[in-house]
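thread: overnight batch results

M.L. [08:02]
morning all. the overnight job finished for the chain we discussed friday. pasting input first so we're all looking at the same thing
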Amino acid sequence: MIDIRLYQNNTMEIVPLEGLVQLGPEQISEGSMIWVDMENPTQEEEQAVLLRWFPVHELVLSDMKKAIASAGDDDSFHHPKVDDFGSYLYVIMHALVEPEPKATDATSYLRGITEAQLNILISNNILITHHAGRIDGTRALRDSCSRNCHIMQRGPDYMLHLLLDDLVDGYVPLVSVFEERVEELEHLVFKSPGNLTLMRILEMKRLLQKVRRDVVYQREIVNRLARGEFALISPTESMYYRNVYDHLVRISDQVDTCRELVLSIMDAYFSVNSANLNTVMKVLTVISTIFLPITFITSFYGMNFEFMSELHTPWGYPAVISLIIIVAAIMFISFRRRGWLE
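M.L. [08:03]
and the structure it wrote out:
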């Protein structure tokens, strides 16, 4: 699907693809702008927009295609970046996609949430977004433009700020779920320190590491956009990018805190398991020690000799059993008093 919105003369209209091809980028007057949102575009639509209407570099086209080819595989997406090609900027961001239907618990939410690669091209009066599947940020921006078309009057750099701000806000509920999940793991480590708990800790560590990597990449991108490095981002709009950057810094700090807590929980898990193992080994060692004299007595009286002093004594067998019980009881009481059985 491709959605084309043209703002000019204080009005906005939806333009079909055929009309876009006839309208050259150089024909867009000052104070006007056009936004092309390409959601799951076909090959013909990509060729019409990215090769004929707004030709982009072949490397840009190659990176953009990863958003479609790698749909559903987060590890195959291109990492977030920003490249300056003079007449346009090429920005790659990662957007969070919440599971459908909505998850009812933290575990389902974390396992169901995915990412999407969002390709953004920004020029003087042109904004192009290219992605696979649904991205809430682009849909929210379309709704905003439908309610107030004058948003587009401020230009593509302002539109880009709105889009980035919405993408960053999408990480807020995820971080909240991370914090709740980490708190659950803290209690679970001491309540049930088994293999399932370790798997949950490792899964949380992997998710946090992945989110942290994306947030750090995107934080640096927004920082470059905010500090006036690119001519296509006006100084007037750069302050809005600084606000987005501040949000990313806070999210990054929260993710780092959760990651450090998970590492501490992992250390606590191994400490608890080690302590439990030491307790088990101590009990087994005490039991083995108690059986040492018992084994000696039974092996001594188990020797196959004809002449033994207790062999023909009527009370010899009960006496040996009593001796075994007395020795075991004395050793048990002695170990208990020393605290070796606690």
